[in-house]
Amino acid sequence: VLPLPLHPADRMVFQKPPDGGWGWVIVVVSFFTQFLCYGSPLAVGVLYLEWLDAFGEGKGKTAWVGSLANGIGLLASPVCSICVSSFGARPVAIFSGFMVAGGLMMSSFAPNIYFLYVSYGIVVGLGCGLLYTATVTITCQYFDKRRGLALGLISTGSSVGLFIYAALQRELIELYGLDGCLLIVGALSLNILACGSLMRPLESPSSPRPEKMCVDKVPDQYFVYHEKEKTTEENISILEKGYIDEKCVNNVPDCKQDIILNKNVLSSINVNEKDTYKKKVVEQTNFCKQFAKRKWQLYLTYWKETMVLFKNKVFSALFVAILLFDIGGFPPSLLMEDVARSANISEDDYFMPLISIIGIMTTVGKLILGILADFKWVNTLYLYVTTLLMTGVALFAIPFAKSYLTLAMLSGILGFLTGNWSIFPYVTTKTVGIEKLTHAYGILMFFAGLGNSLGPPIVGWFYDWTQEYNTAFYFSGLCVLLGGFLLLLAALPCWNACTNQSSKLPPNTYSYKVASNT
């Protein structure tokens, strides 16, 4: 989506990123913003069990609430980017804080599951998407050389939030019930307003503030000609009356001659005004036509570049892999608590909530995989493929876990492997190049959100159909393994050699040179 061009006076002049100073305050408040907004949606598995008991709906229908909350922000990422670009990170963060808090509080009064689709799924999910975009944007403005470190620190906020909110929500439910839990969590989310108020834009103090345009400075072509609302005859009669009254008092015999002369003069003036008005209307019409044509050309260019991206076989395989990974890999973070209850594991055996284990291990995985990706001898694409294949194997092992210990171990493994999100931008950059990173990453995030939205309901429908989770997790593991093998096949050097001999790539297509780092 292409925003309208800004007037030169409306553009902000930014300083060079300081890589420190107030930037570290931005990192801290961005960390807590992601902690507060993503804590409940990522730990929604605890609430999922309560909603199953409260509304008595099927697992597939109930799973839509958590999947929408986690997927809608990615699906609406283009809209979120436009909002942050148009209004700035601070106003968007404050407004989104109200959205998240309001959505959580409204959910405490939900009379049915459909109300939760809107209050928790859409309102909270969209608020989280806006906050994610705002925190990433403001952090990138403040950091250049240390941007990777800063983004890595703020991204752990969501994982820490998952770890803490899983235990917090369970404790609040025991003390105050489901409704009280949602009210308290919503009240905690209001702290996002304080965090957002500290997101000071990096604007140069020497740059003048854009002045409000006065009426007398508005170009002529933007005026509405209200005087044209009156008819020509009315204008002539008014002018004639004033002119004749003045002349006839002084010299009565010349009235008729003056009337004829005045009519001729006014007629010529009116014709000139009509020509000027028509000319300005034509100019404004041509301007609108040229503007629409230019925007249409930009959209055509966007879609042409999109088609060029999909001609890159590694990018096409990456798009399929991320979609299948989120369909199969996201449900455990939402449904693992219900898996334990279905396996008749007593809550007395719990040392720690399974979702909390997933959260803390996701944080560890993001850090370790991110560090490995910085080594020159590590091929990031092969590293990402390895995490996909291992995730598929772990999903296949879930049906064989019949105790808390085995489920806890599998939760830790899945959480660690889910940390591959930290290296996904590296893989995308290596695949399409830094010039097309924004375009390609936006497309991939859209399909990641689609996978997040579809995965848990599909697994829930499998349970409603078979009354057990075994088939559902076999399906999930198959999806992730299929995506991993397709990406591995597309990245193999021998496959690149075969395709390069048979056909030449388009001039603007990027080819991933896997063998260069091995």
From TrEMBL:
It comes from the Eukaryota. Residues 26-495 form the Major facilitator superfamily (MFS) profile domain. It is a multi-pass membrane protein. Gene3D superfamilies: MFS general substrate transporter like domains. It is found in: Cell membrane. GO terms for cellular component: plasma membrane. The chain crosses the membrane at residues 21-44, 64-85, 92-110, 116-136, 148-168, 180-199, 314-330, 350-369, 381-401, 407-428, 440-463, 475-495. The keyword Transmembrane applies. Keywords: Cell membrane, Membrane, Transmembrane, Transmembrane helix. Pfam families: MFS_1. GO terms for molecular function: monocarboxylic acid transmembrane transporter activity. SUPFAM superfamilies: MFS general substrate transporter (SSF103473). Belongs to the major facilitator superfamily. Monocarboxylate porter (TC 2.A.1.13) family. Extracellular pH-and Na(+)-sensitive low-affinity creatine transporter. Also functions as a pH-independent carnitine efflux transporter. PANTHER family: MONOCARBOXYLATE TRANSPORTER (PTHR11360), MONOCARBOXYLATE TRANSPORTER 9 (PTHR11360:SF158). This is Monocarboxylate transporter 9.
